[in-house]
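Exercise: predict the fold of this chain.
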Amino acid sequence: MKTVLALTLFLNLLAAPRLAPLWQTNLEQAKNEAKAGHKLILLYFSGSDWCGPCIKLKKEIYESDAFTTYADKQLVLVRADFPRAKKNQLSAEQTAHNESLAERYNPDGQFPMTVLLDANGKVLRNWSGYPASLTLQSLINDIDAAAAAH
């Protein structure tokens, strides 16, 4: 009976939906993690409650199982969000941090903007907007090419 129960529990865990990848909010912590894990950093500028392309990119690519699997092995994820609705406002400290990131990595204020960084914060590649030509596979190919060239 215990074997059947254990097997049932194991199969339920396998069938459980994957959680979306964990997006950090602090670039300095992400740099430390990237150095320790020999990973690159994907910095994503979004307007989570007002930017249609941001919402679509997050849903179609960044929350996909394939991206989650890839990111778990290759990337440290950082999101710099700029919500507008009062109920979604970030702390003053987080807002200041995100604005600092925008000054350095997204000075034109484009949304969505995705920036690939090395573990030291050097820009390797960026993607502005959510063009129709951007697919999960093309994004992965671009990240892999930038990593190989780095």
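Check your answer against the key: The chain has one domain: 18-149.
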